[in-house]
TrEMBL record:
<keyword id="KW-0963">Cytoplasm</keyword>
<keyword id="KW-0274">FAD</keyword>
<keyword id="KW-0285">Flavoprotein</keyword>
<comment type="pathway">
    <text>Porphyrin-containing compound metabolism; protoheme biosynthesis.</text>
</comment>
<feature type="domain" description="Amine oxidase">
    <location>
        <begin position="15"/>
        <end position="465"/>
    </location>
</feature>
<keyword id="KW-0560">Oxidoreductase</keyword>
<dbReference type="InterPro" id="IPR004572">
    <property type="entry name" value="Protoporphyrinogen_oxidase"/>
</dbReference>
<keyword id="KW-0350">Heme biosynthesis</keyword>
<comment type="similarity">
    <text>Belongs to the protoporphyrinogen/coproporphyrinogen oxidase family. Coproporphyrinogen III oxidase subfamily.</text>
</comment>
<comment type="function">
    <text>Involved in coproporphyrin-dependent heme b biosynthesis. Catalyzes the oxidation of coproporphyrinogen III to coproporphyrin III.</text>
</comment>
<dbReference type="InterPro" id="IPR050464">
    <property type="entry name" value="Zeta_carotene_desat/Oxidored"/>
</dbReference>
<dbReference type="InterPro" id="IPR036188">
    <property type="entry name" value="FAD/NAD-bd_sf"/>
</dbReference>
<dbReference type="GO" id="GO:0004729">
    <property type="term" value="F:oxygen-dependent protoporphyrinogen oxidase activity"/>
</dbReference>
<dbReference type="GO" id="GO:0005737">
    <property type="term" value="C:cytoplasm"/>
</dbReference>
<dbReference type="GO" id="GO:0006783">
    <property type="term" value="P:heme biosynthetic process"/>
</dbReference>
<dbReference type="InterPro" id="IPR002937">
    <property type="entry name" value="Amino_oxidase"/>
</dbReference>
<dbReference type="Pfam" id="PF01593">
    <property type="entry name" value="Amino_oxidase"/>
</dbReference>
Length: 479
């Protein structure tokens, strides 16, 4: 370690923590700052929720399987890491929604369930005519008289009516957040709805006029086109780890306590050791951060944020000649009035070319959500039976899977309830007042997806560099 180096601890080795460590190194070199960086991860592997299993020619994502193509910071990071050439665009397969045990194609032009193309919406059998007429009310309804946060469900039900919400908008958001849209925050989940309403009055017209949403980009599945890597999302974790340079990485080590010590922070670890640092970046779920500050009476707001538990179940099959989910389908989401336990299913063999061998099918189903989380505690065998029964019912599958991979994610999906931004801002200000050298980042706070976590890591690194009291001349400037 160079004399005078500022000591920084990044706690958490998921995508947010890895990004913070990577950008700390990069920005320190650019600014001529000496840093001594330690990355601490409680598990024996890095990556957090990103876990890719490569098995018998299959690429199986146990956690996140993609990121939105329009998020440029993810693409830029991939290029910097030298893996840009390994990016894989999702197929243009059509998404479906299961309503009352029947699969319906998502109408072209749907943006998070909102119709932006009248023709496909009118001919769709996903809604009754009364439901279509009610949804058209968005074209004439006045905009909300307030810009304050409100439940996402209340907003979309007012604009489009219950049928459009129940049959498509809610299933799409449940697939992402695993939560109840009638409790989730509009501003924290899809603020564009509110912004467009305030600007244009009609959400339907606003989405067409704003230029913010490309109808063709969203028409395949309602969510937007996405990307992965040829060998799975684990590719970016492996690349980040290989670029950590002189960063000290501690795996299988947990921070049990933190306290101030002479203007620095003392981190007590579960291996009976401790480190003293100048800066701390907590890249952890809120459920793991709040216990660290209980003794100080801080961050009580984080306890008000629930987190949903889910399981992912990947099943491999031999291709069947007759299957009601056609070859170009990307998968489906499930409306609450359907008699299945799964909330969504992706046809990975169709969505990601090369992620399944020729002649094989790979389905990845999600099970569990707020209010229905006990299923996650079932045995692997019971979960497999439940999901297989649901896939046979929905896809008319006949054979048995060649193998099944069950992955449990306890308290993995933070629920952004109404007032989320205000609570998080209050918590961050409270933490900054008591511990100005500690930051908290991750999917519980700003930006739910992988690009949002990367951006938080980058911004946290910038704050650390900006607070460095001494900057050293770069070698080229000293000549």
């Amino acid at each position: 370690m160079a004399e005078g180096a500022r000591k920084v601890a990044v706690v958490g080795g998921g995508i947010a923590g890895l990004s913070a460590a990577y950008y700390l190194q990069k920005q320190a070199r650019a600014e001529g700052v000496l840093l001594d960086i330690t990355l601490i991860e409680a598990a024996h592997r890095l990556g957090g929720k990103i876990q890719t299993l490569r098995k018998d020619g299959f690429v199986i994502e146990r956690g996140p399987d993609s990121f939105l193509s329009r998020k440029e910071n993810m693409l830029e990071l991939a290029e910097e890491l030298g893996i840009g050439g390994q990016l894989l665009e999702s197929s243009s397969g059509r998404g479906c929604v299961m309503v009352e045990d029947r699969l319906h194609p998502i109408p072209d032009g749907s943006v998070m369930g909102v119709p932006t193309e009248i023709g496909p919406f009118l001919v769709s059998d996903l809604y009754s005519w009364s439901g279509k007429i009610r949804a058209a009310g968005d074209l004439v309804l006045p905009k909300s008289d307030t810009s304050k946060d409100q439940p996402l469900g209340r907003f979309v039900r007012r604009r489009f009516g219950n049928e459009v919400v129940d049959n498509l908008i809610e299933p799409l958001f449940t697939a992402i957040y695993g939560g109840d849209i009638d409790k989730l925050s509009l501003h924290a989940t899809f603020p564009a709805f509110s912004d467009i309403e305030q600007r244009y009055g009609s959400v339907i017209c606003g989405m067409k006029k704003s230029g913010e949403f490309d109808a063709e980009e969203f028409s395949a599945n309602g969510l937007g086109s996405s990307q992965n890597f040829k060998q799975g999302m684990g590719t970016i974790i492996e690349a980040l780890e290989s670029h950590l340079g002189t960063c000290t990485v501690l795996k299988g080590v947990k921070v049990e306590k933190l306290e101030k010590q002479n203007g620095q922070t003392l981190l007590s670890l579960n291996n009976d050791s401790a480190i003293v640092v100048d800066e701390v970046i907590l890249a952890l779920p809120h459920t793991r951060i709040s216990p660290l500050f209980e003794r100080y009476g801080l961050l009580k707001q984080l306890k008000e944020m629930p987190a949903a538990s889910v399981a992912t179940v990947s099943m491999a099959f031999a291709v069947e000649p007759h299957n009601c989910l056609t070859e170009n389908a990307a998968g489906f989401v499930v409306a609450r009035n359907s008699d299945v336990a799964i909330t969504s299913c992706a046809a990975a063999h169709s969505k990601w070319p090369g992620h399944a061998p020729e002649g094989k099918m790979l389905f990845k189903a999600f099970i569990g959500k707020v209010g229905d989380e006990t299923v996650v505690d079932l045995s692997d065998n019971e979960i497999e039976k439940t999901v297989l029964a649901d896939l046979r019912k929905s896809l008319n599958l006949k054979g048995d899977p060649e193998f099944t991979v069950v992955s449990r994610w306890k308290e993995a999906l933070p629920q952004f309830l109404v007032g989320h931004h205000e609570r998080i801002e209050q918590a961050k200000q409270e933490l900054n007042t008591a511990f100005p050298a500690i930051q908290m980042i991750g999917s519980s706070f700003e930006g739910f997806g992988l690009p949002g976590c990367i951006e938080q890591g980058k911004l946290a690194a910038q704050q650390v560099i900006a607070r460095c009291p001494l900057k050293h001349f770069k070698a080229e400037e000293a000549i």
